[in-house]
UniProtKB/TrEMBL annotation, chains A, B:
Alphabetical keyword list: DNA-binding, Transcription, Transcription regulation
UniProt domain HTH gntR-type: residue ranges: 8-76
Name listed for the protein in its UniProt record: Bacterial regulatory protein, GntR family
Source domain of life: Bacteria
One Gene Ontology MF term: DNA binding
Classification via InterPro entries: GntR_C, TF_FadR/GntR_C, Tscrpt_reg_HTH_GntR, WH-like_DNA-bd_sf, WH_DNA-bd_sf
Recorded coiled-coil stretches: none
Listed SUPFAM superfamilies: GntR ligand-binding domain-like, Winged helix' DNA-binding domain
Length: 241, 241
DNA sequence: AAAGATCAGGTTGTCTGACATTATTGATGC
DNA sequence: GCATCAATAATGTCAGACAACCTGATCTTT
């Protein structure tokens, strides 16, 4: 099935153009941007287009504008948002994304093992119970699975880390949905998953970071297998070269 | 020194408004947005304001619009960009940010130890040499330091992970610049840092993930100390509770 | 009756021009 | 020298228009 790709809108082209000016160093940090009128004339587009483009760059923290004064490049021209780099434009590399999540999740498990308090453990255990009680209900048990892993990330007590964990999760489920619509592959191995969860939980409860991290890694690796994904080699148990 | 709080621009308020509408579930995924004319009338602003707001949300992957048809909520209403959550609006928690970087860097070191190839090792070594040769030149040695850690992250062979590593680095240097303008505190401990780097490099070259991760963690912890930062307790060497 | 062509209405994309609000700057007066 | 004030200019917002395009209904042809 073929897809027709369309030319970029003017706004998109202006955004790319300004981004490149900055990346190439022709526009330096904290230097002033030409006025919107000038930009409109230089690029031969209307001021509305310029304003929409600048509006996007402002939202990314790349530009700053002050009414009555003008717009200038931010002190941090790299911006304040993180976008997953996508080469061709749309498709994400599911395997690499999952691999990164595996690493984050493993690190989270290790840290959680040394920082978790009683409330964290209760929250994890509760999620496990819900998962066990609703093993037949896919939506419920999937939600409990997310909650279990989220409780682990939350036990690290770092809001940025937690936010990034959530971000990866949402990106992954979204990408998976668009890739294969059949996530039913999970159903088969739910018993194994439950055991892996229990192991992981035990290591965290015991306060054993190394074991927790390894349990998490094994669990995620197994999950990938259940989803039919092929990851690069394992991190810790790989043959030496 | 006090700061004058200004009311948000109309565009910003519209953006927040639509975001909230989605977060609260009043606007469902894949459902259509009112037309720009309707939105303008409902919110009592001009269409230009609506267009700028929608433009931002499109850039974040929250909205999608098709000419002649309309705009609708994306399948992934969480968006495709990651923003560091900032409560009050501007200041980031430097300690938490640094802590997260420490974790990422430690994980990167461990993975790199099992994935690095000859070219990776050469790249790291080269960075170390540059750093040693220009110990007195702050800018040069700082750049080499960045390059060293970047080579480690690159050796993990995961472009998303590398991109996130870079993002954290840029955010951190930016935040540090605005916090204290004097990063001269680094100068004193450059000899220690050099030793830590050598240790870390040796572990990676040897292919010992656990040691590499621990070296990286110690190094970053020491760096934090040299910067006068107070981090939460270490992950692995913390007293049991 | 079914398939294709045409048309009408609506929506986003872009352009134009205007006014409001705010910051900079230089002249003025003392 | 210093405060005041007008002139200038930039962004923020508004209003209206046309272009390009999509959808669905109607009309035409087979």
């Amino acid at each position: 099935m073929l897809e027709l790709e369309r030319p970029d809108t003017l706004v998109q082209r202006v955004v790319n153009s300004i981004r490149e000016e900055i990346a190439s160093g022709r526009l330096l940090a904290e230097s002033r941007l030409p006025t919107e009128h000038q930009l409109a004339e230089q690029l031969n587009v209307s001021r509305s287009v310029i304003r929409e483009a600048v509006s996007q760059l402002k939202a990314d923290g790349i530009l700053i504008s002050r009414r009555g004064f003008g717009s200038y490049i931010s002190k941090t021209p790299a911006g304040t948002v993180f976008r997953l780099p996508s080469k061709n434009g749309h498709t994400l590399d599911l395997a690499q994304l999952f691999e990164m999540r595996l690493w984050i999740e493993a690190q989270a498990a290790g840290i959680a093992a040394s920082r978790r308090n009683a409330a964290d453990l209760r929250r994890m255990e509760k999620a496990l119970e819900v998962m066990a009680a609703n093993a037949s209900d896919f939506d419920l048990s999937a939600a409990a699975d997310v909650e279990f892993h989220r409780a682990i990330a939350a036990a690290c007590r770092n809001e940025y880390f937690l936010a990034f964990h959530d971000f990866l999760g949402s990106q992954l489920t979204a990408a998976r949905r668009t890739a294969w619509e059949n996530s039913a592959a999970l159903r088969g191995g739910s018993m194994d998953a439950q055991n892996e969860h229990r192991e992981l939980f035990a290591a965290i409860a015991l306060g054993d970071p190394e074991t927790a991290a390894k349990c998490a890694e094994r669990h995620l690796q197994a999950s990938a297998g259940r989803l039919g994904m092929v990851l690069p080699n394992s991190v810790y148990h790989r043959s030496q070269d």
